[in-house]
Amino acid sequence: MKRPSEAQRDASPQAPRPFLKWAGGKGQLLEQLWPLLPAGPFAQYFEPFVGSAALFFALRPKSATLSDVNRELIDCYRAVKGHVDDVIAALEQHRYDEVRYYEVREQQPAALALAARAARTIYLNKTGYNGLYRVNRAGRFNVPFGRYTNPGFRSPESLENLRACARALRGARVCVRDFGEVVRHAKKGDFVYFDPPYVPLSDTSDFTLYVPGGFGPEEQARLATVVDALTGAGVVVMLSNSDTPMVRELYARYRIDTVTAARSINSRASRRGKVREVVVRNY
Ligand SMILES: C[S@@+](CC[C@H](N)C(=O)[O-])C[C@H]1O[C@@H](n2cnc3c(N)ncnc32)[C@H](O)[C@@H]1O
Q1: Cβ neighbours around 161 below 10 Å, total
Q2: In the CATH scheme, what architecture does the domain 74-168 have?
Q3: CATH for 27-69+177-281?
Q4: Is the CB of 277 under 6 A from ligand 1?
């Protein structure tokens, strides 16, 4: 991983960008997060709530472990990493059309080969309503069709970006894991960035709906315990969360900075506003 102080962020058109839209995606916050990053070098980078991996793609560390509990998401990274040409070929079969969208949505991911499964995830992400990822009680993706002038999931630029992402993923281990389990492998000299589902700002906020069972106060407290353990072991940790009393209390012993994000603050996309987030650091 490059030392951010030495290397300016590569914002050139060839630099990889997240190929999925993801709730809480850090793309728009990179500029504010950049000066808060620790000076490396680090043996290994961990991103245990990887989502769209915005920070990973900006940093492009040589050695990384990317994980999440969302299997469809992780399968997508595995496919792009190992079989990007097959993913592109499968994406080229997809069409932006409402009837087709619902047919693809009905497909069982497990019944598809890895590259086709990844292409399905990318297609649904780019053509579904608001780029949401939501499943029903049975674990089936249930986001309705989205209206776009041009969803661009197979434009030359997005396919080129997919190739750039595949190159960035070469040195990364990607796995389906709970955050607490994966960081057991982190050692002194490693850097972990936690970007968990956020503590809700209001009752209508849907940030906890990523996974069945959600990510409630107990999970937030468990995460704080993991941060304490890593700190004790000499691992460098940065964490994002919403700016709420609960978060400030959980991380009272650490350095806390704030950044401002333009976010949907509840499930209605029309209710967008500026939201303050905290960045917790143990360095
Ligand atoms: C705020 S998003 C991460 C956004 C990401 N940083 C980005 O730039 O797109 C939170 C992620 O945590 C994952 N998640 C929820 N519970 C988890 C758990 N117990 N362990 C690991 N990942 C979890 C969700 O699937 C979701 O992808």
Answers
A1: 19
A2: Orthogonal Bundle (1.10)
A3: 3.40.50.150
A4: no
Ligand 1 pocket test, pick from 29, 132, 211, 264 with the greatest ligand atom count within 8 Å of Cβ, gives 211
The whole-number pLDDT of residue 211 equals 46
d(CA 67, CA 54): 13
Q: Residues of the chain with pLDDT > 90: what percent?
A: 76
Low-confidence stretches of the chain (pLDDT beneath 50):
6, 207-211, 265
Backbone angles phi and psi of 185, in degrees to 5 = -90, 0
Confirm whether pTM is higher than 0.90: yes
How many whole angstroms from 69 Cα to the centroid of ligand 1? 7
Q: Where are the domains of the chain?
A: 27-69+177-281, 74-168
Q: Is the CB of 61 under 6 A from ligand 1?
A: no
pLDDT at position 206, please? Answer: 52
Q: How far is the CA of 51 from the centre of ligand 1 (A)?
A: 5
Q: Is 54 in the pocket of ligand 1 (CB under 6 A)?
A: yes
Q: Is 131 in the pocket of ligand 1 (CB under 6 A)?
A: no
In which element (H, E) is residue 105 found? helix 98-106
Cα–Cα distance between 254 and 260 in angstroms, integer? 19
- H/E stretch holding 45: strand 45-47
Residue with CA at minimum distance from ligand 1 atom 22: 68
